[in-house]
Amino acid sequence: MNKSALRYIFSVLIIAITFSCNEKQNKSKDILVVVAHPDDETGFGSVLAKFSRIGYNVHLVIGVDGRYATQSGNKNPDSLALSNKKQAICSCEKLGISEPIFYDLISLDRKHGQKDGVRAAVESGIELREKLKQTILQIQPDLIIAYGPDGEYGHPEHIIVGSI
Description:
By secondary structure, the chain is an alpha/beta fold. 49% of the residues lie in helices and 13% in strands. The chain contains six helices and four strands. The chain starts with a helix and ends with a helix.
């Protein structure tokens, strides 16, 4: 595990400790977690499960549908996106948090998507920002958890999500 990943995990744990010190007063608080891909919540799933268990409302936003996951040998992007969605729903159920809010963006990375290039990535970033603004206004979270400026380990879509 590299240094930036350890810093990220450490930051989330510090937040968890800070909130748990006041858990009796904060049982009706909302936490919004913003990630790029289905499965990104698993990196700090134990923290999310703990907050849910002590009474917080934990909401998860997933920006991209994950159809271009490089570790998958799946040749059908639509099938992979659907499978990712089902896995994220199951993950949230197991963690005891709210069902994920899917923005279903194709990609935030200029290398992927139907319209390859920087313009497409910028347009997706704008769409993500607008959707996130609406979600924040709707949920009015007390805490928002997202990636740091290095995107946890430098992933372009993580960096974009963290910058918003």
